[in-house]
Structure formats: C-alpha cells, structure tokens
Design goal:
The complex is a heterodimer of chains A (154) and B (337). With 154 residues, chain A is mainly α. Chain A has one domain. Chain A has six helices and no strands. In chain A, α1 crosses α2, α1 crosses α3 and α2 packs across α3. The longest helix of chain A is centred in the middle third of the chain and has 27 residues. The N and C termini of chain A lie far apart (52 Å). Chain B has 337 residues and is mostly helical. Chain B has a domain of 73 residues. Chain B has 16 helices and no strands. The longest helix of chain B is centred in the N-terminal third of the chain and has 26 residues. Classes of the chains: A mainly alpha (154), B mainly alpha (337). At the A-B interface, α1, α3, α4 and α5 of A face α6, α7, α8, α9 and α11 of B.
Chain lengths: 154, 337
C-alpha cells in the first residue's frame, strides 16, 4: 500500500513539476480543500489542476503518436519523409511512455527532474497536436469562407 | 555565366527560405540567452555532488576511478575528467558553459527541424520555440554542470538522426543515431541497455525494413557492435559490483521509495525504543557530513541535498546522542538510504 502511495506521489510529481511528497504524506494535500473558501487557491491549482491537465495532454500526445503504428501495416509510402516522420513519432512515444513508467515506479520523489530531458519531445508532440487542431479548424474555416488564411499560415 | 549566377542566387534564396525559421530560432536563442545568462552564472558546484566522482579522482586517477567506482555511469564522469585534465582551472567553468551553450543551440535547432519534419507551420514553430526559451527547467539544466542538458540534446539528436537515416539512407545519420543512443545509455542508468536501447534499435531497424524496403548487413552489424560496446560497461559492473547496470545507484532509490515512513510514526517508534535514532539520518546525508556532525556538534545544514524538508541538524545531533541505540541498525524502518 505504501508503495502504491509512493507511485501515485511520483506520478503526481512528474506532472506537477515540483518535487515533494503529497499523497504519501497526510498533511500537504489537505489545504486543497480550502477550495470552498478560496476557489483560486494556488495550492489547489498546483496540486490538482496543473497535474491533471498535464497528464491529459501527455496522454493525448502519446495516443496521437501511437496512432502512427497503423502506418506499419499499410504498404510503404513512396515518400521517404512520411516514413521518417512515422519513426520519429514512434520513438518519441516510446520515450514518453518509458520515462513516465520508470520515473513513476522507481524514482524517489524527483520525477519532475527525470522528465526534463524529454521536455523537448513533449514540446514537439504538443506542436503536432496543435497543428492537427488548427488544420481541422482551418479546413472548416476555408470550407466556409476562403482558403487565404490557410495559405498565409502554412 | 550570368544564367549560372542567377541559378545559384535562386538556389541560395530557396535555401534561405527553407531554413529561415531555423535561422530565426537560433538568433532568438542567442538573443534571449544573452539576457538570461548574466542573472544565472554557470554553476559548477554540482561537480561536488553525488552525480559525479570525487574531483581529486577525476583529475588524478580517472580511469581507475571509472573502473572501480560504479555508483555513476561512466560517460559523464569521463567528460568531467577530460575537462579537468584539459582545461586550465580558470577556464573550467567557461569551457563547460560554452559547451552547454552549444548543446542548447543544437537542441533548439534540432527541435525546429523535427517540427519541420512533422509539417508544423513556421509561425507556430517559432512561437513555440520562443516560448520554450523561457521554460525554467531547461534553462536551469543549461546552467548547471550536470548531465541533464547533454542528455536532452542526445535524446533529440538520436531521434532526429534516426529519422534522417530513414529519409535519406546515409550511413552518417545511422552512425550519429547509434553514437547518440550509446552515449545516452552510458551517461545515465535510467536509460537501460535492455529496457530502453534494444527497443529503440528494434524500432529503428523495423522502420528501415518497412519504409526503405531493406536493412543491410553492415547496418545491422553497426547496431550489434554498438550494443556490444555498451554491454562491456554493464558486464564490468556485473563483475565488479554484481549488477548488470551502468550504475549501482538504483538501490537507494528503491529503498527510499519503499521504506518511507510517516515522521509521526517514526517519532512514536523512537520514543518507545523500537527503532534506532539512525533512522533520522536523511538520504543524501554524506558520511563526511555525518562525521563532522558527530565530531564538532556544531549546527550543520546540508546544502543542495534534494530532500525538500528542512531538518535542524542540531536537534538531530542531540537525538543521535540521547537515543537509546546508536549501534544497531533497524533495516526495516530505516529510510535513510
């Protein structure tokens, strides 16, 4: 049980970017309940909002990158750039999952420091995520109005 | 002649357009860092931490130290040792600061190229990378003499080189990818040879087979040689320390995670004499620090330890002297690592 608490704590640290003990030590996360008195309590945001949002974004990036796996099944594309992009996606996804697992299961309360070397990969994954989001948005926009803005941005 | 010159100018313009966002990112990096660096001088103090061997050993007995002292992976120690031997004392900090700056420049450049590979729009690329310049952890890592920043650079370089190899099949990129992966494994035990490097190589060769339609014998042989080279260091640790890793640090991590105990419960057990006061010695509390504490009794505060709680060392000393048992060690409840 203690180990599970430690793992939860470690995953929390990994996404909250602050070392320390939260879930395997009783007191620090209780001030979060001040939410009812002070809805914008920094403690609440730090302990609950930031890690949960970061976790969701992380999972989204990994899922997006793992979807590239299906390109292994279809016939190889003639464009070598697509193959390179697929491989890079998969390597990034593998690194994101690996570091999260190892930092979560075996580190000692400094998971956020374990994450720093792969921060650039998270940034790149986030950029791809935003591009997909904007491309959907702009496609919708260009269908309804004109394609000029797409040309400017792309 | 005129036509040839015009073609060359046109070609140059095309290249400039192609790499203009990269150029903007690199210029931004230099500009922003030139404002950030004065408030953050390069910190060489971590060389005295547990992440590296003792400075005396690094400087005067590097290779024996690398062989027999196995609590850290060898590559970062080798880098520091070479730096200590090659650079004069007064240039040591500047030399490494310069190296870390170049690595930072490379890191941002490679990130831009990877985003370009994924078809991220140039405006978004520049905006995101400009924001990333203010990302505190990366900036801190760039100003600390610790392996985090070289590691970040090597990971991105390894991935970029792998992608380029799939794209154009040049052996140079395969060599760059393999050297990067090997360096990562030898720089930090977190990235394990079997758990991390082998799946990475498997993905690389699988992608080559799938997208390039072939995977030459020489290319596979290069991968095998790289793995064998890294295995040598792991095998050395297996012989010397009995563990197939690049460092034997892991035990402390696992002990600290699993043997954690609520401080209130520790106090209770200490009060009834069930556990030894040695339990109060926190992890990263170095033996010299402990000896100094026991010898002089002066207040001693441990700097840069990594444990977040502030401990009054004087009170700890008193506890150590007045506790019921100073000699026995209760392994079950000891969270000191």
């Amino acid at each position: 049980m203690n180990y599970l608490k430690a793992v939860l704590n470690e995953v929390h640290i990994y996404f909250s970017q602050t070392p320390g003990r939260v879930f395997n030590e009783g007191s620090p996360w209780r001030p979060a309940l001040d939410l009812w008195r002070n809805p914008l309590s920094w403690t609440f945001i730090r302990i609950w909002i930031v890690p949960i949002l970061a976790f969701l974004m992380y999972v989204w990036i990994v899922v997006l990158q793992l979807r590239e796996l299906k390109k292994f099944r279809v016939p190889p594309p003639s464009d070598s750039r697509t193959g390179a992009a697929t491989l890079v996606h998969l390597l990034c996804a593998f690194n994101l999952v690996y570091v999260l697992l190892i930092a979560g299961l075996f580190e000692l309360g400094e998971g956020c420091f374990m994450r720093i070397p792969i921060d650039p990969l998270i940034l790149i994954g986030g950029a791809v995520l935003m591009t997909r989001f904007f491309s959907v948005f702009l496609r919708f926009f260009s269908m309804n109005y004109s394609g000029r803005c797409c040309t400017v941005l792309w | 002649m005129g036509g040839h010159l015009a073609t060359r100018i046109q070609c140059g313009r095309t290249h400039l357009c192609k790499y203009s966002s990269l150029l903007v990112v690199l210029i931004l990096f230099c500009l922003v860092r030139s404002f950030q660096y004065p408030s953050r001088p390069f910190n060489t103090a971590p060389i005295h931490n547990m992440h590296a061997l003792d400075v005396e050993i690094l400087e005067h007995d590097l290779f024996q130290g690398l062989y027999y002292l196995h609590s850290q992976p060898p590559l970062f120690n080798l880098m520091l040792g070479v730096g200590l031997k090659v650079l004069p004392d007064s240039w040591f900090a500047e030399g490494f600061a310069c190296l870390y700056f170049i690595l930072g420049l490379g890191l941002f450049g490679l990130c831009e190229r990877l985003m370009n590979l994924f078809g991220v729009p140039w405006l978004l690329r520049i905006f995101l990378l400009a924001s990333f310049l203010f990302h505190e952890p990366i900036l801190s890592a760039e100003r600390y003499l610790i392996y985090t920043h070289p590691l970040a650079f090597l990971i991105v370089l390894g991935i970029y080189a792998s992608g380029k190899w799939i794209q154009n099949g040049k052996p140079f990129w395969l060599a760059a990818a393999l050297i990067s992966l090997a360096s990562i494994v030898l720089m930090r035990s977190f990235f394990h040879l079997i758990l991390w490097m082998l799946p990475m190589l498997a993905l690389l060769y699988l992608a080559s087979f799938r997208f390039r339609g072939r995977c030459g014998k020489k290319e596979v042989l290069a991968g095998i040689i790289t793995v064998a080279f890294c295995s040598l260091f792991y095998a050395k640790n297996l012989v010397v320390a009995g563990e197939f890793t690049s460092s034997t640090w892991f035990g402390m991590n696992f002990a600290a995670m699993t043997a954690y105990m609520d401080p209130k419960r520790t106090e209770t057990l200490l009060a009834v004499g069930k556990i030894t006061p040695l339990v109060n010695i926190r992890r990263f509390f170095t033996p010299p620090g402990l000896y100094r504490l026991l010898w002089s009794g002066s207040p001693y505060r441990h700097r840069g330890s990594g444990c977040s709680d502030q401990i009054d060392r004087q009170a700890e000393l008193q506890q150590l002297h007045s506790g019921p048992c100073l000699t026995g060690v209760c392994r079950q409840h000891n969270n000191s690592g």
